[in-house]
């Protein structure tokens, strides 16, 4: 181990993990700045500016690495296109969240330096999860993301915020313990923490140590399911989402979930691929249950944040489908096509989520409420916000000409190609269910008179920018999905 | 030397006690303690495998070190959130955390 650690030169580390290094350095720099600056300067958004610059630099560094493959240590930290596309997604989401938080800082919670650098550290954690091919780095990345998220959820000075954070922490920590316990069994049976090596060894060990391997697999599966809020493990999500500051809710729904998927696919593809047909059906079942339960529970919600939380649980079900059909029918599935469908929908989902939460931030600020009533007659108060929100909602439901439809279409296509007709049918059915509550909100915004005086609501510039970017992305990916969908399968996904 | 089975059994029992405590206890401090128990059960597994496993090597001990660090960070954040919560509610009882349901 010591020889390995000594063997890593800075140049090699920089090649593989430059974006992470930049963001980490920026995070620590922000900690210093936060301690040194007077309060007035903090309010001007200096820390957000530094963080935005760091994200842009890291993004450029990541873009320049496309097509290359390299590894750090004995293949425990990988540079491949799979990691890079996910890293770009995380950084893009964080960029939008930071812009969105610019307005949030002016509120009673005050300007918070820790808000910005914790967000950066959370992003680094997510990026580590996408790159790791070793149980140790994977676990550390997962915890960097999780622990930062617990604090971020609890940052609002309100009772709900602390309660949401506590629930998230307890459930999240139990999940981490399960993951760790499962990992310890996998290490014990294979004698390595390295995913690909463990995969080779498990190919034989599966039969000789069946019980212990399956136990480890199930524990890891349960722990990961908590992180991506798959249905029997979703209970924390609505409470944490409701309690968190709204931009952080968007971060949890988009980036945190995407990171969970990045980790999940890497672990199960590398370490457990040899016996997919024996246990892969589990994912199919989880995906189906998640789609149905998430969309059903969303119908009865009165709080828009909670409604979006349940809808994001339903979306996790759709997102699970490409991986589920891959594991369920290992020989029939097309790995690159399925990965592309998963990534396309993740990107589309991240954009519409960021947009919807941006609108919610503005509305909640003016109405001082996150209830559905705050959206009543929004068209009269701000036609642009209402129009944007309507687009995001129908995109989530899967209306043609929006990215949501294109994404669901590619996913359903993958399911049909592998013979899971019923899963594709269920996707369609739950989409129809989703239309019920999304259209309820759209109807409220357009067809009902607002409560109280119909003064027009101004949208702050930063929030407007986020809404416009999300809108362009959602419609752009819906009208011309081929732009992204044709280039994705050609990527050098896992560096073969 | 004791066979690995007894270590694994001990770890499994600790993990189950921890899980039971985390899911049923009403005081959040006890819940956090139970979570520590679960994480330490995993550590025990790692150490046992690293010494007595089928292919014993040092990686398990390194993993154990990392997970101890992580567990410390996690419980520190947990206690911090608990203090914030206690200021709002004057209680560390799980049953009082009922602002949000369903």
Please summarize what this structure is.
Chain A is an all-alpha fold. Helices cover 77% and strands 1% of the residues of chain A. In chain A, strand 1 (70-72) and strand 2 form a beta hairpin.
Rg of chain A, Å, rounded: 22 Å
Q: Total helix count of chain A?
A: 22
What is the arithmetic mean of pLDDT of chain B?
A: 89
**Count of helical stretches of chain B:** 3
Helix content of chain B: over 70%
Catalogue the unreliable spans of chain B. none
The protein's oligomeric status is: heterodimer
Principal-axes shape call of chain B: elongated
- Find the biggest chain interface: A-B, 45 and 48 residues
Task: Quote the average pLDDT of chain A.
Answer: 87
Beta-strand content of chain A: under 5%
Strand order of the largest sheet of chain A: 1-2
Pairing-aware structural class of the strands and helices of chain B? mainly alpha
Query: Biggest β-sheet of chain B: count, sense, barrel?
Result: none
Terminal CA distance of chain A: 27 Å
Contiguous low-pLDDT stretches of chain A (5 residues minimum) are: none
Strand content of chain B: under 5%
Listing every helix as H and every strand as E from the N terminus to the C terminus, the arrangement of chain A reads HHHHEEHHHHHHHHHHHHHHHHHH
Structure description:
The complex is a heterodimer of chains A (496) and B (102). Chain A is an all-alpha fold and 496 residues long. Chain A has a domain of 223 residues. In chain A, strand 1 and strand 2 form a beta hairpin. The longest helix of chain A has 33 residues. The mean pLDDT of chain A is 87. By secondary structure, chain B is an all-alpha fold. Chain B is 75% helix and 0% strand. In chain B, helix 2 runs antiparallel to helix 3. The longest helix of chain B is centred in the last third of the chain and has 31 residues. The model of chain B has no long low-confidence stretch (mean pLDDT 89). The chains are: A mainly alpha (496), B mainly alpha (102). Chains A and B meet through helix 7, helix 8 and helix 11 of A and helix 1, helix 2 and helix 3 of B.
């Amino acid at each position: 181990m010591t020889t390995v650690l000594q063997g890593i030169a800075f140049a090699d580390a920089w090649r593989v993990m430059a974006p992470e290094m930049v963001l980490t350095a920026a995070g620590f720099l922000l900690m210093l700045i936060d301690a040194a600056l007077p309060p007035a300067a903090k309010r001007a958004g200096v820390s957000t500016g530094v963080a935005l610059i760091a994200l842009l630099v890291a993004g450029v560094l990541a873009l320049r690495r496309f097509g290359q493959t390299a590894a750090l240590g004995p293949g425990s930290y990988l540079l491949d296109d799979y990691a890079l596309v996910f890293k770009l997604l995380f950084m893009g989401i964080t960029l939008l969240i930071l812009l969105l938080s610019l307005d949030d800082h002016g509120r009673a919670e005050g300007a918070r330096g820790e808000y910005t650098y914790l967000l950066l550290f959370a992003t680094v954690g997510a990026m580590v999860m996408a790159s790791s091919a070793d149980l140790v780095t994977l676990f550390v990345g997962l915890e960097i993301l999780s622990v930062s998220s617990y604090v971020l959820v609890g940052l609002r000075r309100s009772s709900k915020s602390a309660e949401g954070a506590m629930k998230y922490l307890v459930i999240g920590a139990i999940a981490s313990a399960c993951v760790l316990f499962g990992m310890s069994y996998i290490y014990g049976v294979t004698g390595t923490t390295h995913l690909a090596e463990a995969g080779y060894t498990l190919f034989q060990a599966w039969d000789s140590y069946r019980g212990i391997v399956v136990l480890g697999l199930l524990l890891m599966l349960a722990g990961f399911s908590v992180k991506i809020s798959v249905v029997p493990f979703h209970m924390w999500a609505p409470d944490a989402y409701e309690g968190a500051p709204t931009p952080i809710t968007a971060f949890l729904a988009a980036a945190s979930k995407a990171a969970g998927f990045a980790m999940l696919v890497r672990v199960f593809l590398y370490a457990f691929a040899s016996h997919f047909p024996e246990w892969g059906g589990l994912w199919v079942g989880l995906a189906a249950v998640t789609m149905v339960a998430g969309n059903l529970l969303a119908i009865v919600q009165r709080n828009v944040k909670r409604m979006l939380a349940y809808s994001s649980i339903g979306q996790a079900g759709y997102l699970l489908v490409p991986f589920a059909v891959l594991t369920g029918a290992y020989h029939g599935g097309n790995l690159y096509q399925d990965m592309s469908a998963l990534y396309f929908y993740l990107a589309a989902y991240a954009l519409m989520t960021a947009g919807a939460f941006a609108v919610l931030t503005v509305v909640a600020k003016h109405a001082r409420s996150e209830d559905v009533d705050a959206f009543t007659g929004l068209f009269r108060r701000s036609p642009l916000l209402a129009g944007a929100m309507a687009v995001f909602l129908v995109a989530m439901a899967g209306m043609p000409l929006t990215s949501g439809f294109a994404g669901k279409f590619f996913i359903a296509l993958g399911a049909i190609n592998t013979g899971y007709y019923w899963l594709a049918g269920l996707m369609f059915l739950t989409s129809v269910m989703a239309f019920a509550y999304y259209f309820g909100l759209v109807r409220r915004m357009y067809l009902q008179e607002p409560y109280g005086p119909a003064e027009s609501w101004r949208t702050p510039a930063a929030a407007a920018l986020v809404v416009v970017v999300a809108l362009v992305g959602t419609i752009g990916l819906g009208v011309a999905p081929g732009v992204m969908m044709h280039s994705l399968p050609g990527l050098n996904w896992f560096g073969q | 030397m004791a066979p690995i089975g007894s270590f694994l059994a001990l770890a499994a029992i600790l993990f189950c006690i921890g899980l039971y405590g985390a899911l049923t206890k009403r005081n959040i401090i006890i819940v956090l303690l139970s979570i520590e128990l679960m994480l330490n059960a995993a550590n025990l597994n790692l150490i046992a495998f690293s010494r007595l496993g089928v292919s014993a090597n040092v990686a398990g001990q390194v993993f154990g070190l990392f997970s101890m660090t992580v567990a410390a960070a996690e419980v520190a954040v947990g206690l911090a959130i608990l203090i914030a919560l206690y200021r709002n509610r004057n209680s560390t009882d799980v049953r009082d955390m009922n602002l949000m349901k369903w």
